[in-house]
C-alpha cells in the first residue's frame, strides 16, 4: 500500500506544481521579461527544482500557453545567468568564453538536479536503492586509519622514513613512475607492487648498509616506515549503474565508495550480484543486502588501480505489499524462498493476516491468483514479477462473550467450553446490590446473523429454579439496576436561596434538609410561607378535578433547627419556593452631579421621593447653576425635564418619582448660543436675553438658499426640542435660552425621474383633452 500512496503523492505533487508553474509563468510573461526582478526569477527556479519537471517541460508548457519564443528565450537567459552568478565566484579576469562555459555548466546543473529529484522518488520503491540517494550517508574512504598491512604500494604513494636514536634523520619520498623510491644516501629501491610490510623490510635492509646496528638489540638506532599521502587510483564502473564511468578515487577506497560515487545501480541493475574484476578475473561478488540486513562488509574489499566494477541486470524481483514492516520491491536470488523475502521486509506487522498470503503471478498468457498457506512459506520459491499481498486480520473475536450492567467487572471475557450465565457473572466478580434480577436480557446472534433478545429470570437461575443457560459466541448479557429502570428522582428549590437548582431525592428528606444542601437562605429570605408544589399521583384527597398540582405551605426555623412533620416530607419531583421578606430590598441609589452643594449618590428611603427631594438632599443649587440645561437620565436615555418648573411646583408633571439608577446633571451656565445647519457661518455667540432667533441667525451670516427656515428648531440644554410654528403665514419662532442650539435644516427638493415626468405629462395632456371636450360639449 505504501508504494501506491507514494505513486499517488508523486502524481499529485507534479500536477500541483504544473499548475503553480503555469500560473507563475502567466504572471511573469504578462509583463515584459525585462521588468521582472531577480527575486521573481529565482523563486521560479526554486519551484522548478522542487517540482521534478525538467526545464524543457516547463518551457514547453509556457509555449503551450501562447508565449512567444523571444520571451521564453529571454526568460531562459535570465534564469541561466542568475544560476551561474549564484554558484560561480566573481572573477574580474574571466573571459567571455569562460563566462559562457560557466553559464552552460550552470544550466546543466539545474537540469541535472531536477532529474535527480524525480529519479530519487522512483528509486524509493526498490529496497536498497535509496541507500545511494541518501545525502546523510557519506561513503568516503577513511584516510586516518593505520595503513593496512596488505596495502600494495604504487606510483604516487608517499613514504615517511624516520631514523631515531643517537642519530636522527627523516626522509619523505614518493614512489616514482618506475616503481622506486629514492634516498639521497642509497641507490633507488624498487617497491612498486609490494605490500607496505614488504617494502618496510626491503628499505630497512638497505639502510642497514649505511647505519650499523639499525633495528638490532643494543644498536641504539631504530627505523620506522609509514605511509604518508596516498596515491589516486582509477576504477571503472560498467553495466547498469546510475552513472557508469571511470572514477578517480584514493587508493584506500573500497567497493562501496565507488558505488556511492556512481549513484549505485540503476532501476534495472542488480544489488546482489555486483562483480569486481581485477586483471580480467572476477575476484569478489558483492551482495548489498548483506550490508543492509546484517551489516556484513566481508566482500567490500579495498580496490586497486584499473579494477572494474560490473553491475549486471537484475534477474528476479518480487513485490511485497500490505501488512509488513517495510513493503517494497525486493531482489531475490535463486536459492531464496518467500520466508527470506519476508525477512527482507522486516516480517509481518502485529495485525497481519499470516495464515494465507495472496500471490498475483503472471503466466505466459494472463495473470493468476495463488493462495499460499502459512506452512508453505518456508519452501515457496518466488518468481519474476510476483506480487505478494498480506492482508489484515478480521476485526472480530473468535471466542468472546460480554456482560454489561450491574456487575462489578463488566466487559468482555473468554468463551470457555460450556460456560453458563452463572459462571460468567462469577467471572465478573458477582452482582451489585441494586441489580434487577427478575428480568435480564441475553442478546444472541442467530445463524443468519440476525440479533435476537432472550429474557431471563436471574433470580430463578440463581435459586436453581430454572435451568442455567449455556452461552454462545458473541453473546451479550445485560443486567440492569433498579436505578436504570426508573426515572432519576430529583427535587428542586428556587427563590431566596444561595444555590438554587435541582438535587437528587432521598428518602426522609425535609425542606430544611434541602435548604441545607442548597447552601442556606439568602439574607432577605423568609422562612415562613415556604411553598411546595407537588405532582398529583394517588393522593387526591382535597384536590379538585381541575387541579393538576398540589400546593403545600410550610414554616421552618430560619436556623434550620428541628424537623418538620413526617406528613410534609419531600417527595420525588417536589419544587420548593423560598419567598423574600415583604419589606426587604437592596438599597436603591440615584445620583446628582454638577452645580449643587453636595453632589454624589444618594439612597432612596421610600418609593415617593421625587427630583425636587433629590435637589433638596444635595444642599440646593449654586448660583452658577443653569437650570435650563439640566439633564435628567434614566436607563441610559435623556428625558427632557424642566427643572425650573420642578422647583416652582412640587406637583408639576416634570417632577418625576425617582427610580434606581436615575441621574441628574446640573451644569454651569454656558452664556452662549450655538447656531448650526444651513447658515453661512455656523458659530457660537454670547447669549443675550433680549435677542430673538432671527437675530442669532443674522449673527451667523443668515440662512443659505437651501435653508428650510420654517422648519428651524431649537435644542435646549436639558434635551428638549422646540420647533418653529406657522399660522396664516405668520411664523412663531422658539424662545432662545442660555446654552441653546439653533439648527436650520436643509430643504429637500424632490427630483422627478424621467419616468415620473413622462407619467405626469401624459396625465396633464389627458386632463387638458378632457377639459377641452367638456367645454366644446357645453
TrEMBL record:
Gene3D superfamilies: Outer membrane lipoprotein wza domain like, wza like domain. Residues 146-209 form the Polysaccharide export protein N-terminal domain. Residues 235-284, 318-364, 400-444, 491-537, 590-642, 673-707 form the Soluble ligand binding domain. Residues 83-111 are annotated as: Disordered. Pfam families: Poly_export (PF02563), SLBB (PF10531). GO terms for molecular function: polysaccharide transmembrane transporter activity. Keywords: Signal. Residues 1-30 form the signal peptide. The keyword Signal applies. This is Capsule polysaccharide transporter. It comes from Emticicia aquatilis.
Amino acid at each position: 500500500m505504501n508504494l501506491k500512496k507514494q505513486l499517488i503523492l508523486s502524481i499529485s505533487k507534479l500536477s500541483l506544481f504544473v499548475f503553480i508553474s503555469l500560473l507563475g509563468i502567466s504572471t511573469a510573461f504578462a509583463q515584459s521579461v525585462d521588468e521582472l526582478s531577480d527575486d521573481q526569477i529565482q523563486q521560479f527556479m526554486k519551484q522548478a527544482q522542487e517540482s521534478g519537471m525538467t526545464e524543457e517541460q516547463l518551457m514547453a508548457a509556457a509555449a503551450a500557453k501562447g508565449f512567444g519564443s523571444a520571451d521564453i528565450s529571454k526568460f531562459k537567459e535570465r534564469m541561466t545567468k542568475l544560476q551561474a552568478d549564484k554558484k560561480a565566484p566573481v572573477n574580474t579576469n574571466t573571459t567571455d568564453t569562460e563566462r559562457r562555459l560557466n553559464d552552460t555548466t550552470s544550466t546543466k546543473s539545474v537540469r541535472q538536479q531536477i532529474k535527480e529529484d524525480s529519479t530519487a522518488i522512483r528509486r524509493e520503491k526498490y529496497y536498497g536503492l535509496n541507500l545511494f540517494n541518501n545525502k546523510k550517508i557519506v561513503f568516503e574512504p577513511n584516510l586516518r586509519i593505520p595503513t593496512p598491512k596488505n596495502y600494495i604500494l604504487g606510483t604516487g604513494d608517499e613514504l615517511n622514513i624516520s631514523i631515531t636514536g643517537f642519530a636522527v634523520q627523516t626522509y619523505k619520498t614518493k614512489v616514482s613512475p618506475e616503481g622506486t623510491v629514492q634516498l639521497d644516501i642509497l641507490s633507488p629501491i624498487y617497491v612498486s607492487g609490494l605490500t607496505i610490510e614488504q617494502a618496510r623490510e626491503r628499505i630497512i635492509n638497505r639502510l642497514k648498509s649505511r647505519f650499523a646496528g639499525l633495528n638490532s638489540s643494543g644498536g641504539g638506532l631504530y627505523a620506522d616506515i609509514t605511509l604518508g599521502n596516498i596515491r589516486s587510483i582509477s576504477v571503472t564502473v560498467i553495466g547498469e549503474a546510475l552513472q557508469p564511468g571511470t572514477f578517480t578515487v584514493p587508493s584506500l577506497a573500497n567497493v562501496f565508495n565507488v558505488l556511492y560515487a556512481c549513484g549505485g545501480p540503476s532501476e534495472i541493475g542488480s544489488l546482489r550480484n555486483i562483480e569486481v574484476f581485477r586483471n580480467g578475473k572476477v575476484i569478489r561478488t558483492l551482495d548489498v543486502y548483506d550490508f543492509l540486513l546484517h551489516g556484513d562488509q566481508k566482500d567490500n574489499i579495498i580496490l586497486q588501480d584499473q579494477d572494474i566494477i560490473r553491475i549486471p541486470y537484475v534477474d528476479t524481483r518480487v513485490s511485497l505489499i500490505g501488512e509488513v514492516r517495510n513493503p517494497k520491491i525486493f531482489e531475490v536470488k535463486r536459492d531464496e524462498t518467500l520466508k527470506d523475502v519476508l525477512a527482507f521486509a522486516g516480517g509481518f506487522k502485529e495485525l497481519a493476516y499470516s495464515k494465507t498470503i495472496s500471490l498475483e503471478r503472471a503466466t505466459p498468457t494472463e495473470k493468476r491468483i495463488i493462495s499460499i498457506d502459512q506452512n508453505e512459506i518456508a519452501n515457496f520459491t518466488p518468481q519474476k514479477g510476483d506480487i505478494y499481498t498480506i492482508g489484515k486480520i478480521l476485526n472480530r473475536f473468535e471466542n468472546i462473550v460480554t456482560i454489561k450492567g450491574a456487575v462489578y467487572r463488566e466487559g468482555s471475557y473468554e468463551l470457555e467450553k460450556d460456560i453458563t450465565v452463572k459462571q460468567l457473572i462469577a467471572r465478573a466478580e458477582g452482582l451489585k446490590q441494586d441489580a434487577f434480577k427478575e428480568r435480564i436480557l441475553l442478546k444472541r446472534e442467530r445463524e443468519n446473523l440476525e440479533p435476537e433478545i432472550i429474557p431471563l429470570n436471574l433470580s430463578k437461575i440463581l435459586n436453581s429454579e430454572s435451568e442455567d443457560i449455556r452461552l454462545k459466541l458473541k453473546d451479550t448479557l445485560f443486567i440492569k439496576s433498579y436505578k436504570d429502570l426508573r426515572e432519576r428522582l430529583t427535587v428542586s428549590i428556587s427563590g431566596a436561596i444561595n444555590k438554587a437548582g435541582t438535587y437528587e431525592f432521598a428518602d426522609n428528606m425535609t425542606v430544611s434538609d434541602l435548604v441545607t444542601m442548597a447552601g442556606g437562605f439568602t439574607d432577605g429570605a423568609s422562612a415562613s410561607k415556604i411553598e411546595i408544589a407537588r405532582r398529583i399521583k394517588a393522593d387526591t384527597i382535597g384536590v379538585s378535578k381541575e387541579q393538576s398540582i398540589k400546593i403545600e405551605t410550610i414554616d421552618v426555623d430560619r436556623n434550620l433547627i428541628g424537623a418538620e412533620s413526617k406528613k410534609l416530607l419531600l417527595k420525588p419531583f417536589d419544587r420548593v419556593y423560598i419567598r423574600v421578606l415583604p419589606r426587604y430590598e437592596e438599597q436603591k441609589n440615584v445620583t446628582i452631579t454638577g452645580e449643587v452643594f453636595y453632589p454624589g449618590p444618594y439612597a432612596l428611603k421610600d418609593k415617593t421621593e421625587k427630583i425636587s427631594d433629590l435637589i433638596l438632599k444635595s444642599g440646593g443649587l449654586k448660583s452658577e447653576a443653569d437650570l435650563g440645561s439640566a439633564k435628567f437620565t434614566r436607563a441610559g436615555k435623556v428625558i427632557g425635564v424642566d427643572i425650573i418648573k420642578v422647583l416652582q411646583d412640587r406637583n408639576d408633571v416634570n417632577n418625576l418619582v425617582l427610580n434606581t439608577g436615575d441621574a441628574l446633571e446640573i451644569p454651569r451656565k454656558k452664556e452662549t448660543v450655538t447656531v448650526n445647519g444651513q447658515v453661512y457661518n455656523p458659530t457660537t455667540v454670547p447669549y443675550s436675553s433680549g435677542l430673538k432667533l432671527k437675530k442669532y441667525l443674522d449673527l451667523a451670516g443668515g440662512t443659505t438658499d437651501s435653508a428650510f427656515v420654517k422648519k428651524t428648531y431649537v435644542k435646549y440644554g436639558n434635551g428638549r426640542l422646540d420647533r418653529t410654528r406657522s399660522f396664516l403665514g405668520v411664523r412663531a419662532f422658539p424662545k432662545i435660552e442660555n446654552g441653546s442650539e439653533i439648527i436650520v435644516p436643509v430643504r429637500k427638493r424632490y427630483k422627478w425621474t424621467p419616468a415620473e415626468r413622462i407619467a405626469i405629462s401624459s396625465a396633464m395632456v389627458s386632463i387638458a383633452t378632457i377639459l377641452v371636450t367638456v367645454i366644446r360639449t357645453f
